[in-house]
């Protein structure tokens, strides 16, 4: 029996995927869920059918609906709650977390209303944890493929290198490669904003616009991500890495991406409410679009793709009209815009 224990909060698809990685690395993993029924299914059948289908979970994973039981004895706690629920879940966890625990989050979004990054939320709710040791995990990583042990590469970021390296050591194995990065802001912003561009990519595919349009959307979308990310304090180079272009590509092009699927349904004329009901899981890109639109105003940066998606999602604008608006913008110079987004050092 392993003496290492980890807790994963909560038991969605990504939480279950990361729990599987930790179990393969000889951690005894407690997977927390709000649902007693879901916990019973995982413990009885080794399955989490709603989120990971018929993929059998490792024996080292156990599930519980009791937070105290989940966190008891854990040396590592991994939060994978939806962005809108992170604060509440962290509050529930606070009484049971020791200051020496390694805390990682793998949530890609901002808190609605406050527009705060997830490490900021965790720092406020878990004051016993050194804020410099809070770790974010991001990168191109679909849970469905991680559970199948497909080769996957991600990045972990923390202000303190020792914390990032602890997370790296806990998670890295033969199919799950982990890099470290000191740029917490850039990694979190990249992971959140790529969901917006994925919505746009799905919408473009739903309209039947083809590969040319999607390639342009991804490329120009990265420029928007970097523009806001650098304005918020992120490092330009982060957006050319796994949490930037890497996550953006996989989310905009994969059948596993719920943000792409939501955009595709919107492009086919489905109303937003129906799309979200059909998805049955959180589509982070919808809430993030509203937040990013507000942040672009706050930081005074141009984000035309985000602006048009905001109009489609929340103001009833027709998708084709939004595309026409983007294509009809004033002429500009690409290199000047890249320098504006990434910094003058990118000027060759």
TrEMBL record:
NADPH binds at residues 13-14, 34, 51, 108, 143, 258, 282, 284. It comes from the Bacteria. The lineage of its organism: Bacteria, Bacillati, Bacillota, Bacilli, Bacillales. Pfam families: NAD_Gly3P_dh_C (PF07479), NAD_Gly3P_dh_N (PF01210). It comes from Paenibacillus ginsengarvi. It catalyses: sn-glycerol 3-phosphate + NAD(+) = dihydroxyacetone phosphate + NADH + H(+); sn-glycerol 3-phosphate + NADP(+) = dihydroxyacetone phosphate + NADPH + H(+). Residues 183-323 form the Glycerol-3-phosphate dehydrogenase NAD-dependent C-terminal domain. GO terms for molecular function: glycerol-3-phosphate dehydrogenase (NAD+) activity; glycerol-3-phosphate dehydrogenase (NADP+) activity; NAD binding. This is Glycerol-3-phosphate dehydrogenase [NAD(P)+]. NCBIfam families: PRK00094.1-2, PRK00094.1-3, PRK00094.1-4.
């Amino acid at each position: 029996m392993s003496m290492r224990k980890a807790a994963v909060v909560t038991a969605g698809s990504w939480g279950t995927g990361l729990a599987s990685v930790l179990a393969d690395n000889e951690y005894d993993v407690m997977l927390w869920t709000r649902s007693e029924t879901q916990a019973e299914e995982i413990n009885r059948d080794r399955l989490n059918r709603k989120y990971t289908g018929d993929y059998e979970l490792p024996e080292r994973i156990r599930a519980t609906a009791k937070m105290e039981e989940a966190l008891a004895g854990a040396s590592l706690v991994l939060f994978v709650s939806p962005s809108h629920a992170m604060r509440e879940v962290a509050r529930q966890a606070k009484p049971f977390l020791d200051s020496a625990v390694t805390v990682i989050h793998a949530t890609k979004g901002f808190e609605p209303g406050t527009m705060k990054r997830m490490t900021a939320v965790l720092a406020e709710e878990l004051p016993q944890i050194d804020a410099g040791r809070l770790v974010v995990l991001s990168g191109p990583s679909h849970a469905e493929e991680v559970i199948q042990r497909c080769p996957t590469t991600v990045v972990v970021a923390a202000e303190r290198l020792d914390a990032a390296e602890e997370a790296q050591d806990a998670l890295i194995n033969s199919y799950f490669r982990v890099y470290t990065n000191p740029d917490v802001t850039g990694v979190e912003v990249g992971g959140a904003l790529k969901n917006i561009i994925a919505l746009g990519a799905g919408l473009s595919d739903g309209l039947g616009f083809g590969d040319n349009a999607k390639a342009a959307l991804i490329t120009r979308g990265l420029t928007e991500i970097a523009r806001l990310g650098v304005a918020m304090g992120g490092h330009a180079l982060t957006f050319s890495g796994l949490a930037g272009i890497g996550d953006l590509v996989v989310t905009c092009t994969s059948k596993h991406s719920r943000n792409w699927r939501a955009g595709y349904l919107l492009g086919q004329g489905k109303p937003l409410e129906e799309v979200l009901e059909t998805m049955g899981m959180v589509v982070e890109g919808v809430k993030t679009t509203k937040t990013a639109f507000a942040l672009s105003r706050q930081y005074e940066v141009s984000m035309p793709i985000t602006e048009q998606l905001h109009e489609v999602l929340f103001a009833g604008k027709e998708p084709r009209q939004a595309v026409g608006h983007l294509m009809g913008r004033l002429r500009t110079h690409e290199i000047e815009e890249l320098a504006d987004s990434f910094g003058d050092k990118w000027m060759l």
